[in-house]
Amino acid sequence: MRGSTYVAFLGTLLCSSVNAFPAHADADTNASRAHLEHNADWTPKPSQNCEHGPKTRRCWTGDLDVLTDMDDVWPDTGVYRKYTLEITNATMAPDGFPRDMQVVNGQYPGPTIEANWGDILQITVINRLHANGTGIHWHGIRQLETNEYDGTGGLTECPIPPGASKVYTFRATQYGSSWYHSHYSVQYGDGVLGGIIIHGPATQNYDIDLGIMPMTDWFHSPIFTVNSAAHHEAHGPPIADNILINGTMTSPYGGAKPETTLTPGKTHRLRLVNTGINNWIHASLDNHTFTVIAADFVPIEPFETTELSIAIGQRYDVLIHATQPSTSYYFRVGTGGSCDGPNPSASEARGIFRYADAPDLLAEPVSVAAGHLMEGCWDEQNLVPVQRTQVPRDIPQEMLVGFDTTNASTNGVHWLIDGKPMKVDVKKPTLMQITDGKWEFEGTNNVYRVGEKDTFQYWVIQQSDHMAAFVPHPIHLHGHDFYVLDQVSDATWNGNASQVDRLRTDNPIRRDTATLPANGYLVLAFESDNPGVWLMHCHIPFHVGQGFGMQFVERQEEILGSIERLDDIKRECGDWKAFQESFYGVDFEFEETLV
Ligand SMILES: *[C@@H]1O[C@H](CO)[C@@H](O)[C@H](O)[C@H]1NC(C)=O
Ligand SMILES: *[C@@H]1O[C@H](CO)[C@@H](O)[C@H](O)[C@H]1NC(C)=O
Ligand SMILES: *[C@@H]1O[C@H](CO)[C@@H](O)[C@H](O)[C@H]1NC(C)=O
Ligand SMILES: *[C@@H]1O[C@H](CO)[C@@H](O)[C@H](O)[C@H]1NC(C)=O
Ligand SMILES: *[C@@H]1O[C@H](CO)[C@@H](O)[C@H](O)[C@H]1NC(C)=O
Ligand SMILES: *[C@@H]1O[C@H](CO)[C@@H](O)[C@H](O)[C@H]1NC(C)=O
Ligand SMILES: *[C@@H]1O[C@H](CO)[C@@H](O)[C@H](O)[C@H]1NC(C)=O
Ligand SMILES: [Cu+2]
């Protein structure tokens, strides 16, 4: 963040390395009844020799704590965290309905990847499929100076062909909760995903980390089939069959509800993630509030709420105080409702949260909701990052989103950015073109240049009122967090004084995914502090497949100097080309919106 007094010094920070994950607390603590730190004093103060623990979650190690500006400073632990992820074809039945899936290490969701803040992750991805490429994106990870490990086919890599593997290596400069997922076409919708936890400081104390809670809408047809249907459907989005919570749910075909155990008297941290396809997620827990401590990878001033609205790709870290009578409670999850292609068979899916000492550990809960879950496709508002930033007020450049249904039955529908659906050639990713010295890109690559170093880049994404289908979109930017300056539905940006005045510039929320409201606009700002090729797109896989994407080529002249593995990219692209030729029998010009 600008305006902070920190200076970037990667690798020179002296800090005892944290070789183990922070231990879970088992000692009794009154912190479990800690009252809400509303309007807490978040003024930075020196925290000397402050060690992270259940009662000192704001601390990390040495001088680092939750107020440390993680855009500029992170520990250099020297620790490598190594994982191997094998992508396979499997028949599984997460909700009792058996279907072909594509999964990680034979499990769904895939294994959670964990590291400490400042560790280096080294993850080997092996493609054991027969008929698909793959590639993994580490959602929200900044990939500072490691653009080639961002996992976006056609931009930063060629897909990994069947039988091949790729080692992704990058540093966790941020901390918090996220997920990884395939970025190969719509593949993650068939199951190629898992959680990411980067341990670090937190804005409020807790005893027990319950880990990632992935939630998703779920289709019984393979996602590639649903995608083909969606591609030729000009009237309304596809309707999902169910909602999965932590990879499981009941349905008329069987299945099981997910169960989570609460330890009486303790405060639990739960990391809510919408790993979904087409639906916003609303979540609540009967008779318990959530104390929200982070939004995406950004620690925020804690606030209390009874439910949350979570767009695809977004995360909320919440604390749950197990101070209610010892029994079991429903965890309720719904979709946006009419705004996102509702889900009538699962308008309210349920998981079970059970106190460890509940008298009947097998019984179905009898808990009653305080009210219906809200519907709607919105982002939580008034989130306050504890690492404060003043964003200078400025006029954004406009990016117009359109929707083209001409020749839908033959050519399919398309989403347009400034009149063009994004198309990339997966055999010639932008990063490889740049290494070949190319400065001009195909118009349909939707390249937008970002030149000047370390300045705010302002964009307004506007839904074209006469062409856009009236649906909201979860907008995700790679390589950066963006500041969300405004979100207005049913409105047209014209840059007049009242629109500019209402831009939120005094410590606005900063995150990596935000909702573009229906028939309206979203104003964003991000800092040009990461040379590379960065995708910005709608996170609904059908929509990006239909063209809803663009790429920022940021500080191109500096990209080559910051990338170490250029030869590997060429070799990998050769492997992909060879696979295509042998699999399809021809080296056809495979130009597709395949990200
Ligand atoms: C917990 O709080 C109670 C009431 O404020 C106090 O009497 C007790 O000593 C506290 N226990 C611990 C372990 O801090
Ligand atoms: C998965 O397995 C089925 C059945 O063997 C096969 O038809 C399909 O092509 C495989 N899919 C991929 C992506 O390898
Ligand atoms: C990926 O595999 C699925 C399932 O076998 C198949 O339907 C789809 O056409 C393949 N897509 C691509 C782009 O390889
Ligand atoms: C999710 O399921 C996994 C596997 O059963 C389990 O280990 C984990 O505790 C569950 N997470 C939550 C938050 O319930
Ligand atoms: C839980 O909340 C419901 C609805 O507000 C209320 O009727 C019920 O009494 C509460 N149960 C407990 C155990 O507090
Ligand atoms: C739609 O199809 C017609 C007939 O093939 C063609 O002339 C026209 O250019 C197409 N329009 C678009 C926008 O693709
Ligand atoms: C700015 O534009 C909006 C939308 O057209 C309009 O409602 C508003 O009155 C305008 N404000 C000023 C000060 O012109
Ligand atoms: Cu979309």
From TrEMBL:
Signal peptide positions on this chain: 1-20
Coiled coil: none
Entries under CDD domains matching the protein: CuRO_1_MaLCC_like, CuRO_2_MaLCC_like, CuRO_3_MaLCC_like
InterPro entries in alphabetical order: Cu-oxidase-like_N, Cu-oxidase_2nd, Cu-oxidase_C, Cu-oxidase_fam, Cupredoxin
Alphabetized Pfam families for the sequence: Cu-oxidase, Cu-oxidase_2, Cu-oxidase_3
GO molecular function terms listed in the Swiss-Prot or TrEMBL record: copper ion binding; oxidoreductase activity
Domain Plastocyanin-like: 87-201, 214-356, 424-557
Sorted UniProt keywords: Copper, Metal-binding, Oxidoreductase, Signal
Record keyword Oxidoreductase present: yes
Statement: the UniProt record of this protein carries the keyword Glycosyltransferase: no
Membership in a protein family: Belongs to the multicopper oxidase family.
Name of the featured protein: Laccase
Organism: Periconia digitata
